[in-house]
Amino acid sequence: MSSLKIPATGLVTGPHWAGLIVNGEKTWELRKRRASIGKEFGIIAKGTGTIVGAATIADCLGPLDLVQLMENRHLACESEQEILDDVKNGYDKAWVLANARAFDPPVRYRHPSGAVTWVTLSPDRLIL
Questions:
Q1: Residue 28: Cβ-neighbour burial (10 angstroms; 0-12, 13-18, 19+)
Q2: Residue 3 within a domain
Q3: Count of the separate structural domains present in the chain
């Protein structure tokens, strides 16, 4: 575990989505805001208290329209209805993910109060 590189920040996402990302199946993360290209981040499975892996933001596309999102929904691992909901709610930027990897076992951490999307993964937050 000591040689495991934990990124400085972690993205909180649903456990289902987190698993798809670290397995390399979900290569688009749809969000409302743009993201910094080249940023490596941890993948936090919401509600589990664990960092399940890491990935890098290789590109940021958008805003994308409904046609573009529907044509590429397989990259986000989303259904047509999920894409319609995303567009309605402003999730029209695609973070293109690369270098996804799973942590085996996942790394436990202390989740800070109020953190919803991003978590600073300082060493004192990790439970090693």
A1: buried
A2: no
A3: 1
